[in-house]
Design brief:
Elements: H1 3-17, H2 24-31, H3 47-52, H4 57-80, H5 90-112, H6 114-120, H7 122-125, H8 131-139, H9 146-176, E1 178-179, E2 182-183, H10 208-225
Antiparallel strand pairs: 1-2
Helix pairs in contact: 2-9, 4-5, 4-9, 5-6, 5-8, 9-10
Amino acid sequence: MSEQTVAIEEKKKVVKEREPLFSKKNKKLITDPLDENNPITIQVLGICSALAVTVQMKAAVVMSVAVLFVLILANVSVSLIRNLIPNRIRIIVQLVVVAALVIIVDQVLKAYLFDVSKELSVFVGLIITNCIIMGRLEAFALGNKPWPSALDAIGNSLGYGMVLVIVSFFKELFGSGKLFGFEIFGNATEQTGLYAMGYMDNGLMLLPPSSLIIVAVYIWIQKLRNPSLIETH
């Protein structure tokens, strides 16, 4: 057998052994952060924004999309240059990459969603130091190829956004009787709908402590469904 034939056979073997884009291992990078390894409820990362920007669903969704955009591009970018980054300055490089992406997000929000930009205020800028972003760059992107890094970013962003949306759903609904600004329970001023029957908005739901309560209930239900998540000492 000639050397050329051997080379062709080896190439075919490599192609056959190449991992599918959506292999079981890669799928877990997306599904695990949605439940068993959720960045907020299990890893306890990014909890600050979960408490601060969840009064309205619109703000929570925009924040979730912003984190999704930043984390995907940051993970892929760092993964692409991971072998070129000196270990001593890796944190600085990661911050520069994330900061550039956050500036883009901030400018887009100011141009097209100015009201939401004002509501989110400093929290968009704080994406730069968001524990989830830096944690995934440091723990995953620096040691993996771009495609798995992109999937990891998608999974963790969706897991983060899912909690934000769930928390904001209950806070906005029971705190103001609205969802995305639309009246669900009726008009409180004109006393229509449920308000005509004596219903009153729960002011506690508009305050940060209610977010802790909702997240705590979420964690309780999550661990009730999956006892393996309960830590034993």
